Amino acid sequence: MHNEPLAFRMRPKNIDEIAGQQHIIGKDTALYRMITKGHVPSMLLYGEPGIGKTSLAYAIAGTSQMPFIALNATVSGKKDVEEVVAEARITGKVILFLDEIHRFNKLQQDTLLPHVEKGSIVLIGATTENPFHDVNPAIRSRCGEILQLKRLETEDLITLLNRALNDEERGLGKTSIKMNDAQIRKIAEGVNGDARKALTLLESIISASDEEDGTITVEDWLIDNLIGRIGLVGDKKGSHHYNLLSALQKSVRGSDVNAAIFYLANLLETGDLVAVSRRLLVMAYEDIGLASPEVGPHVLAATEAAVRLGMPEARIPLANAVIEMCLASKSNSAYKALDAAIRAINDGKTGDIPLHLRDTHYAGAAELGHGGYQYPHDTPIGSFGGWVNQQYLPDKIKDIEFYEPVLAGDEKKLAGIYERLKEFKKNK
């Protein structure tokens, strides 16, 4: 009987056994050709858990037949790195697979990096975090390849599951199992592209199934029961969490209700209500803005209610807020106007505040020439309120315009008023 988990036993022995990731290691890729010809470059493997980073590293080592050492940066120390260096001196060249490479400390780097640079150690680093954010530049610069792995497609997972069921040496091939194609597909579709979960689930299903006359029969209800909740959920402090927040905002901005609700559901499963509520509130003013000014207060009320309620009830006001934002008229004109003003200031487009706008609440203001401000409320203009034609910007930039209205929703009215006031300034 095997002691190791099925997912461990079924790791590919060479790159031809890799399931999926054909954009990285397919037979028509440069990496495949390099490895089959005996050249293994240092590289970083980036992607979510369970999609094959470790398997790819082991497969590369199996194909190249080079000495292979695996370490985890969270538990390895300087002594472990020194042992790798010593092995490289003996063998001439060694592949070091370093999982969680973003946790590599400076002392370990100082010991290892010179040997990576001269080529005696081939470094294959794996990380679930964005390497451009979380991996030390010293390591990145020595890794010629930064490869982003993808979730496996259903057909790739079906191939992997069938291989496990038929492999007599490493898999379940010596066991008589009654299981149909539809059940295998259900497993493949239920793990959201995660190969490790697919094999672990298969092993659990086989273990929990009834055996009669030496044959294990898999039943549909058992698959449904064990699949459980497997989604895009990730670590609320990791890169995937920020990818989900980004996907939520872009879906709302694109008015796709179903996509926005899907990403909201995934975010709520991480339990980080504060981050979700903060992002929704920013979106209400960044993406909805002046076109639907009532949305901001609505979202504020919804997020405050969510934090006060906690999960699972918090999902209710947040769902209302997301759908309202998706279907609301949208404008980003307000914050773009402010950003334009900030750029102008940073570019030196400034000037003195006009004298009539300066503070006059002190003795001697008149002696400095401050004063002459006309109070707009004293001059009503239709139903708009009060307005007078006087200069507010400094002389050097008096004609500059930062605000460009978006003709959407309620902002159409604001845009009309803005244009009329510009005409009044020209005519008076």
Task: List key phrases describing it.
single chain; alpha/beta; Rossmann fold; Helicase, Ruva Protein, domain 3; Zinc Finger, Delta Prime, domain 3; 3-stranded mixed sheet
Secondary-structure blueprint:
Layout: H1 6-9, H2 22-25, H3 30-36, E1 43-46, H4 53-64, E2 68-72, H5 78-91, E3 94-99, H6 106-118, E4 121-127, H7 131-134, H8 137-140, E5 145-148, H9 154-166, E6 176-178, H10 181-190, H11 195-208, E7 210-212, E8 215-217, H12 220-227, H13 239-253, H14 257-270, H15 273-288, H16 295-309, H17 315-327, H18 333-346, E9 380-381, E10 385-386, H19 411-427
Parallel strand pairs: 1-4, 1-5, 2-3, 3-4, 6-8
Antiparallel strand pairs: 7-8, 9-10
Keywords: ATP-binding, Nucleotide-binding
Protein name: Replication-associated recombination protein A
Organism: Sporosarcina luteola
Q: Tell me, briefly, the overall form.
A: elongated
Helix proportion: 40-55%
Beta fraction: 5-15%
Helix/strand class = alpha/beta
Number of strands: 10
> According to CATH, what is the class of the largest domain?
Alpha Beta
pLDDT average, as an integer? Answer: 85
CATH architecture of the largest domain: 3-Layer(aba) Sandwich
Count of separate structural domains: 4
Order of neighbouring strands in the sheet with most strands: 2-3-4-1-5
Low-pLDDT windows of residues: none
What is the H-and-E element order? Answer: HHHEHEHEHEHHEHEHHEEHHHHHHHEEH
- At CATH level 3, the topology of the largest domain is Rossmann fold
Largest sheet: 5 strands, parallel
- Number of DSSP helical runs: 19
CATH level 4 superfamily of the largest domain = P-loop containing nucleotide triphosphate hydrolases
